[in-house]
């Protein structure tokens, strides 16, 4: 049985990392960890591979993705399409940065204004 392809955004920590560990442990997925910070994600890949050392670490791949940057998104898509023919699972987990109240009103004004 061939592995399904799954992308997890924000997989370098928190719920994304936990989800990646669980999917990795099944052995059924080629996991794409789509994150901004390469070093943090490489550390996460090390942690995931230790979670179940019987599984193949080659099923884990980092692809840089900053969802606040259109250029990064387009680059991610091109890189993904080079290596994969399709996508089976998408887990949109990337966090958002909460602005302090005074900044939030400025952001809303600019966005809606």
Compact overview of the structure:
The protein has 113 residues and is α/β, with parallel strands linked by helices. The chain contains four helices and four strands, in the order βαβαβαβα. Helix 2 links the parallel strand 2 and strand 3.
Structure description:
The chain has 113 residues and is an alpha/beta fold. The protein has a single domain (4-112), classed as 3-Layer(aba) Sandwich (Rossmann fold), CATH 3.40.50. The protein contains four helices and four strands, in the order βαβαβαβα. The protein has helices at 14-26, 38-51, 70-83, 101-112, and strands at 4-9, 29-35, 60-64, 89-91. A four-stranded parallel beta sheet has the order 3-2-1-4, sandwiched between helices.
Topology:
Blueprint: E1 4-9, H1 14-26, E2 29-35, H2 38-51, E3 60-64, H3 70-83, E4 89-91, H4 101-112
Parallel strand pairs: 1-2, 1-4, 2-3
Mean pLDDT score, rounded? 86
The total number of structural domains is 1
The total of beta strands comes to: 4
SSE pattern: EHEHEHEH
Task: State the main characteristics.
113 residues; alpha/beta; Rossmann fold; four-stranded parallel sheet; 4 strands; globular; disordered C terminus; Short-chain dehydrogenase
